[in-house]
Amino acid sequence: MTELFTVGIPFFFILAIVYGALEVGGVFKNKGVKLLIALAIAAISITNVQIVEIINQYLPYAAIFFITFFFLGFIAKVFKGKKGENKDWFLIIVVVALVLILFARQGDTFRQFFDSTPISYENFVIILAALIMALVFYAAYKKGKQ
Q: Is the pLDDT of residue 28 over 70?
């Protein structure tokens, strides 16, 4: 099982990066050729211990970056909406709920940032909760009207 984490995950990461680069580059039209090239480069890359160690060292940070990047893109897409269409208020409610879960899980981490501000952490949480609850009620109201 540890081989999967030490060798398998870097293999699939390199495979995805190379295949994605070949797909975006558009040099080869055949998807099979792109897959074979990506498989070959990934197989050769995991034989180098330094590459595997670097990927294992930085992959957690890259995963956090990618998750944050896609989540922000998802939020922007939801709030932007399409011209002429109603916004999908259910997705907005889901995004707000995910933000609430984030603050609930990481609450003590944010407390240290309020030591040098005029507003206390508890007051900030109360204001934020009131705003989020108002947004949820407004979104539910708009969803009910549709």
A: yes
